[in-house]
Each structure stands twice: as C-alpha cells, then as structure tokens.
Amino acid sequence: MIDLRIRGATIVDGTGAERFAGNLEVDAGKITAVGEATRESARQTLDVDGLVVSPGFFDLHTHYDAQWFWEPSASPSCWHGITSVLTGNCGFSLAPVACDADREYLKLLFSQVEGVSQALLDRVVDFRWSGFGEYLERIEPVLGVNVASQIGHSAMRHCAMGADAYEREASPLEIAAMSEMLRKAMSEGAIGFSTLQATFEVGPFEKPVPSQLATHDELRALAKTVGAAGGGIVTVSPHPGAADIDDAYQALLIEMSQLARGASLWNAFQHRWDQPERWRDLLAFMDRAARDGAQVYSVARCQSLDLEFDFLATRLFVYFPTWHDALSLDHGDKRARLADPGVREALRREFNDPEQGPSQMIARSRIVEVLRSNKHPELEGRPLCQIADERGLDLVDLMLDTAVDDDLETRFVYRGLMNGDPQAVREILQSPYCVPGVSDAGAHLDMDCGVDFSGRLLGHWVRSEGIFSLEEAVRRLTSFSADVIGVTDRGRLQPGQAADLVLFDPDTIAAGERETLRDVPGGGTRIVQRAIGVEKVFVNGELLVDGGRPCDVHPGRVLRRGSGANSLAPAE
C-alpha cells in the first residue's frame, strides 16, 4: 500500500517538458510513479480535477536563519509553493560562534542590516550551538520546509578576528582559520559560503560589514576551500552592488566559480533608474562567463521593489548624514528635528542631491506615496511629487509635514524603487543565467515582502505577458534552481525524487495584496502576502499547506549538495 495517489492532474514535471494529464504516487516521502497509476491501493487518494502538479518551488535568497525559532513553517513563503529555501545569504549566518561577543555581534548584524529586531532575537534565538553543524542539528527537527544553508563570511570573520573583523584586512593566519571553519562547515552540511562586498551596506557601530573588508585573495582562499571540500556554491552581494558589478569583481566571480567547483550566484539582478542600461552589460558578462567555463548566475527580481517605511523606525535613509542623525534620536527629539525649519534645508539638500552615492536611487525615483495617514487620508494612494507640485511645495516638506502631523505614524511606500522598467525586467528574466526571485524572506519584516515572486512569475509574466511557457517557468522555479545550488534529489517529478509538490491553478495563481500580521513574538508585526490559486503544498510527502492554511507538521530537511551534477543547460 502506498501513502498517496494524486489522480487526474495536469503534470508539469520541472524539466521543461510539455505538460500531460496523469497521476502521481508517493510513498515514504518519495515519488514512486508518474503518469499511469499502479494497481497498489493508497492510504489517501486526491482527485484534483486538472490542477497542475509540479515540483515544489525553490527560493534561493532568504534570511530565515532566525525565523525557525518562532515560525518554522517559513511562512509566508510556504503559502506560495516554496518547499526549499537557501539561507545564510549576504555573509550573514547565526554560526559559527566561539564566544558571547560573537553571539552579540551576530544579533546586532541581523538587527541593523537585515531588519530582524534585536528584541525578537533576544527572545527567540537561544544560541545552543557553537559550530555550524550544531546549528543545523538544532533547527532540523522543527523545519516545515527544506533548507540548504550557507555559512556566512561575516560570521566567520568575527569568529576568527573579533572586533578587528570590521576594522581591517585579515592576516594569512586569520584567513587560514576561516578556511578551516568553512571546511568543517562543509563537512557538516553547509552547501557553500556567502559574502557581501556591496558598498551600500553599513554594519553595527556605523562600521563596515566585516566581509566588506575582505581582499580578493581572502575570497579566493575561501572559494578554493569549498572546491577542496567537494565543491559547492558561493553566493555574493557584489561590489559595488545594487545590480552593478565592476570589471575586477566580474573577473573574481568567474574565478570563484572555478575554484569552488560550483556556481557563483549573485544577488540581486534588477533594473536601476540611475543606470538604465547597466542590465545589458551584466547579461553580456554572464554570457562571457559561461563561454569561459564558469557557472555565474544571478537571482533576478521578478517584481517591482516597493519598500514601506515610517519615521518611527527606518534605516532606509541611513546614507543621508542629516537624516540619519535625526532619525537616530528618541521619539520627541526626532519629531522636533524633522519639523525644525533650520534642519529642513539640509534634509532637502541631501535628499535631492543626485551625487549622493547609493542613496541617489532613493532621491531620483521620488515615487513615494502615503499608504496610511491618521490625519491626512486624502493623500493616500497618490504620488507625493504630484501633490507637492500642485501645492508648490518640495516633496521633502510635504512628506515630513505629514509625518510630523501624524506623530510620525504615517506609513509611506516607495513604488518602483528598482525594477520599474517592464521591458528590462522581461529581458532579464528571459536570460538563461537568471534564477527567479527575490524574496529576501525572513528579513526586513516591516518594510518589504518579496514572496510574491513565484505568483508574479506564473501569473503576470507567464499567463498575462507570455514571456515563456508555464513549463519553462516551472523549470526555473524547480530543477534549474536545484541544479544551480547542486541539490540533485528534488526539483523533478520522477520516481525516486523527494515528494516536494505544489498543486495550483494556472488560471488564477498570483499573490494577494500586502497585509500586516501582528504575530511576531513580543507583539511585533510583519508584512505578508497570501497566495492565490495555490491549493496544496507537500514537503517530503507530508501535507504542509492546505488551501492556504498551514498544517502543524515539520517534514523539512537540511539539504546537502548532491554527489553528482545535473545539467544546467536550458530546456529546448
């Protein structure tokens, strides 16, 4: 007797092959038959009336490292058919730790850079581990989805160098210590390592993020360690960052892929308003890398980057000195500073300065709206730049006057901060080197929710825009993503593969509007989006999500890199 028979499905198997009608059978967490039903009886039979059955989707850029301790199903990702996630991105992981100073620094790093509050981390993360393998052992029993985990470069640096990690380059002995941590982590289940050299991030104490100070030689040494351990991935937030990679770093990404014997995967590929043609150069770079025999891929954003904020607490303006100083004050002093006519002149000048480095993307877009205002609901839903022009005001004055009048509770949103050019996004997504994303799930809980990328891809880009077939879109979300990170036991509907499954309606699949949940321990909130058209989600043969409702099960596993490599060639 088998565990499950799914009958009357439209099967999209994850390989890019044409869909077909048939059945799928599961036993002991594995797929046992696809197409024709066997004669065995089943403990459960589902008649799905033509719903698509596909492999579970992958999300290759998340920050769920801490969320397992309070919400282990990985919601809202799992609601959208995500059954496997990659964590430890951007050089940030919660292991290894050698002392209390390491633990406290990692909490600061996740809080200040990834927007996971210090109070939440203090409440839920117990740090009952030292090495990376102990961390994986700690989380595996509670996982709802599968996790491929990377060891973070900044965590290794702080463990090897202490506070010097964010002050200077590493010595040869310190690089050797990090290499040994990485070697050990790979032997314990890490799938690779991640790093960040993007210039726009600022770490705790207004110091660089530790990995930003790594030399290219340090990065080569770590990539070589991954290769010597059997091969793995290197994921990168590259220099200078924000969808830009300079020539020297492009060459380094190729070299790291070759040394690591796996993919160099960079984040995040998206259109920039201030560099409107840069995406073409980056597509050409990845094509050159492939011709050189390297595996260089990007996680490409499927959706507009819309960031919510208020002036109660935000790091969105950290790059503007006067804004940063004002927003660092306590509530009363902050409100007074933002209202001060003498300070306003500097606030306007910094915001409108086109040479303000990475912050120019914020200033130049100027596509800011009021989402919610207690005293000025008439402003909601319209671009503030239009209203400011009508009233003869500067945008900064209108935005701050509204916020001050609302006692800083006004909720704003930047619309299309990046990825606002649909033709550019279309061509980026069609590249054979781009993995669909970017969710950033588990981070920036009060500012963003990117889990809509799978619904956006299958709904908008496939169903409405037809940029490629449903079969090809599913391949990119499943087997292609699995192959990039070297996972070979899932991502395809084939006998012997893990039974990670999504049942969805291709005519309706999409993501709902953003909403705010107050379910974070300690009374905190997070932005989420519900899935539309996703009926059931199975992980390793167990039902995890049923009709949008999570089940109280923990079928997820820690994923290790496979011993073989599936082809990364695009489907014909």
Summary?
The protein has 572 residues and is of the alpha/beta class.
Question: What are the key terms here?
Answer:
572 residues, alpha/beta, Urease, subunit C, domain 1, 9-stranded mixed beta sheet, 6-stranded parallel beta sheet, 18 helices, 23 strands, disordered C terminus
Describe the structure.
It is a single chain. The chain is an alpha/beta fold and about 575 residues long. It has three domains: about 1-85 and about 440-555, Urease, subunit C, domain 1, CATH 2.30.40; about 90-135 and about 150-305 and about 420-440, TIM Barrel; about 305-420, no CATH class. It is about 30% helix and about 25% strand. The chain has 18 helices and 23 strands. Strands 1, 2, 3, 4, 5, 18, 21, 22 and 23 form a nine-stranded mixed beta sheet that branches. A hairpin with a 2-residue loop joins strand 22 (about 540-545) and strand 23.
Task: Indicate the radius of gyration in whole angstroms.
Answer: 23 Å
Overall pLDDT level: 93
CATH architecture of the largest domain: Alpha-Beta Barrel
Predict the CATH topology of the largest domain: TIM Barrel
Low-confidence stretches: 563-572
Q: What distance separates the N and C termini?
A: 38 Å
Tally of alpha and pi helices: 18
By DSSP, the count of extended strands is 23
Draw up the topology in text.
Layout: E1 2-11, E2 20-27, E3 30-35, E4 42-47, E5 52-55, E6 57-59, E7 82-87, H1 100-114, H2 118-124, H3 132-139, E8 146-149, E9 151-152, H4 153-161, H5 172-187, E10 192-196, H6 216-228, E11 233-237, H7 247-260, E12 264-269, H8 278-291, E13 296-301, E14 305-309, H9 321-327, H10 331-339, H11 341-351, H12 360-365, E15 368-372, H13 384-391, H14 395-405, E16 411-418, H15 422-430, E17 434-437, H16 453-464, H17 470-477, H18 479-485, E18 501-504, E19 510-520, E20 524-532, E21 534-539, E22 542-546, E23 549-550
Helix pairs in contact: 4-5, 5-6, 6-7, 13-14, 16-17, 17-18
